[in-house]
Amino acid sequence: MDVVTLVGWALSAVTLGVKVYALGDSVIRPSAAYDAVGRLPKAFWLIVLFLAAGSQVYYAYYVGFPNSWGPILSIAGIVVALVYVFGMRPELIRYSPRKGRGGRSSEGPYGPW
């Protein structure tokens, strides 16, 4: 295996990982958070991120994984995924309900105090 193939594998794996991460994060965020942010609805992000990840998986299957980051759809998909991760996700986190992950809360073992 030469260096170019290794770089292709690395780019494909990283871009696919970012797209799948963005899609998974968009699935778990509530629709109310998208409405509170006031930009694009949850359905838009789910469709676009699914198409981004799906197009790369399609190209990886039919063209080959090391070259699956090259087509224009895949490049546009990573741009969309990065916009979601660095633009939308911080806003969604601010408007998403907290699940009591560490830190102080007013929740007792049987409910609120």
Main features:
113 residues, mainly alpha, two-stranded antiparallel ribbon, 4 helices, 69% helix, elongated
Produce a short descriptive summary.
The chain has helices at 3-28, 31-37, 42-62, 72-95, and strands spanning 107-108, 111-112.
What report would you give on this structure?
Strands 1-2 form a two-stranded antiparallel sheet. The chain starts with a helix and ends with a strand. The longest helix is centred in the N-terminal third of the chain and has 26 residues. The chain is built from four helices and two strands; from the N terminus they run H-H-H-H-E-E. It has one domain. Helix 2 packs across helix 4. It is elongated. It is 69% helix and 4% strand. The model has no long low-confidence stretch (mean pLDDT 86). It is mainly alpha-helical and 113 residues long.
